[in-house]
Design a protein that fits this description.
Length: 486
């Protein structure tokens, strides 16, 4: 369902339906709400007719560009162009086919000739739909240039919204022209949506109906229609040539080799770490390793990649201890054995990539050569050998967790005092990780059926309500009390 050919065609038809009422009332709302006299009445009917038969056509141009960009994200530039142009022609056909019967049904008996016999309407409609393949081709070029950003939802949707906002403002600027284009004429050749809107507007509004007698002052959208096609073609050609230069055969080959090298380094690192983790009972899924006890308590370790320059890979190593009742609350009916990450832990830690001699700790592991892989793997494996037994001892033993919380609190207080006395940070003095002690205590009280203790522990929590973690702990406590009393 995410392929542009699937969603763009029904979206085009929907845009025509949605736009029709707005086009029908455009003249009365934006131009002249009280048309008087034969000249104004003729302009009202003529302009409304053009807007009706071009309903959704301007929206479809933006849709064609977005579809082209979406195709570029999924395909090579050449394949995207080969698919985008026929798709754009199809979208243009859908716009015309859907709009025609809707517009004809609204005409009444005012016109002696059919819409397709009116030269101005036919000309503006042809110029608008002829721009569809050009917009789609421009979208392919743009999508090729922005491919990395468009693949990330966090970046894709703000870019789409920003484009739609700019397109709306530019198109409305064109639609609000009356008699002749009043803005600097260069805008018609630089901003295609302005030219597209102007061509439609001036096709109906090129007569000064306030003059006596009325006089034609505009060109009925001819200049704007030509500017639309020329500027859209320029953008289509320019963006695709620029994208071709940026990602040409040499660039693609170099990028492929570079990406292969980076992936090989990361794969080697994963292999080295996986050997120790598999021996300890961990199971890998993607870049996350998980180890669970039968009762549902477990440990998760993930490799969190970060954005970096080409030729190297950077990532963090996160570890978390997972508490069974807490996971059941977080995942509900889903399977935490497949999806739990260190982020869901009641103890969370990010490994330090630097050694104890570093002035300040750096949590970022960076791989650009095989030697970096060996060093990073050694850091992680050493940490695991020293800390895995300790984390294993916490699983299923709440008292051991609470004791560890107190030990870490005392160690942190001592490290803080030493840092204040010496004036500098000292590696290895601070405890690893951070605890969610309140969560551990709440579920410990709940498992004992101590409703009052759970209520006291969660009383200061900011998030409440029937679906909150506090409510879940209280529900467990009530069930355990009922089990013991029954």
């Amino acid at each position: 369902m995410t392929h542009p050919a699937v969603w763009s065609v029904p979206a085009m038809a929907l845009l025509v339906f949605v736009a029709m009422p707005f086009n029908d009332g455009f003249y009365s709302f934006w131009v002249n709400y009280d048309a008087q006299g034969d000249a104004q009445q003729h302009e009202l009917l003529h302009t409304t007719r053009i807007f009706r038969y071009t309903s959704g056509v301007l929206c479809g141009q933006a849709l064609a560009l977005l579809a082209g960009a979406a195709l570029a994200v999924r395909n090579t530039q050449a394949r995207a162009l080969a698919a985008a142009i026929p798709l754009a022609v199809l979208l243009a056909g859908v716009a015309v086919v859907v709009a025609y019967p809707l517009a004809r049904g609204r005409e009444g008996i005012f016109f002696a000739t059919g819409a397709l016999d009116e030269p101005v309407l036919v000309r503006v409609l042809l110029s608008e739909v002829a721009a569809y393949p050009l917009y789609a081709a421009a979208g392919v070029g743009l999508g090729t240039l922005l491919g990395g950003r468009l693949r990330r939802p966090a970046a894709r949707w703000p870019l789409v919204l920003l484009f739609l906002l700019g397109w709306f403002v530019a198109t409305l600027t064109g639609l609000l022209q009356d008699d002749r284009f009043e803005a600097p004429s260069g805008l018609l050749w630089v901003v295609p949506p302005i030219a597209a809107g102007t061509a439609v507007a001036l096709a109906g509004l090129s007569t000064d109906v306030w003059a006596v007698p009325p006089v034609a002052v505009g060109d009925w959208g001819r200049g704007a229609g030509a500017a639309l096609l020329v500027s859209a073609a320029a953008y289509a050609l320019g963006l695709n040539l620029f994208a071709r230069v940026r990602t040409g055969p040499r660039g693609r080959q170099a990028g492929t080799v570079l990406c292969g090298l980076v992936n090989a380094l990361l794969r080697r690192f994963v292999e080295l770490v996986e050997a120790d983790l598999t021996a300890a009972g961990f199971v890998r899924r993607g870049l996350v390793f998980r180890h669970f006890h039968p009762e549902g308590n477990g440990i998760a370790l993930d490799i969190q990649r970060t954005a970096t320059l080409g030729g190297e890979v950077e990532f963090f190593i996160n570890v978390g201890v997972l508490l069974a009742p807490h996971l059941r609350y977080l995942f509900g009916k889903d399977d935490p054995l497949r999806d739990a990450t260190p982020h869901h832990g009641v103890w969370r830690h990010r490994l330090v990539a630097t050694d104890d001699g570093a002035a300040m700790p750096d949590h970022r592991f960076s791989l650009s050569a095989q030697a970096d892989v060996e060093r990073a793997a050694a850091v992680v494996r050493t940490w695991l050998a020293r800390n895995l037994p300790r984390m294993e001892s916490w699983l299923g033993d709440v008292e051991a967790m609470l004791a560890a919380i107190e030990e870490d609190r005392e160690r942190a207080a001592q490290a803080r005092a030493e840092q204040l006395a010496s004036g500098r940070w000292r590696a290895g003095r601070w405890p690893d990780g951070t605890w969610s002690g309140a969560v551990i205590r709440a579920y410990a009280h709940a498992e004992r059926g101590d409703v009052e203790a759970v209520a006291a522990e969660t009383a200061s929590w900011r998030v409440g309500g029937p679906d909150s973690l506090a409510a879940d702990a209280l529900a467990i406590a009530h069930r355990r009390r009922a089990d013991r009393q029954g």
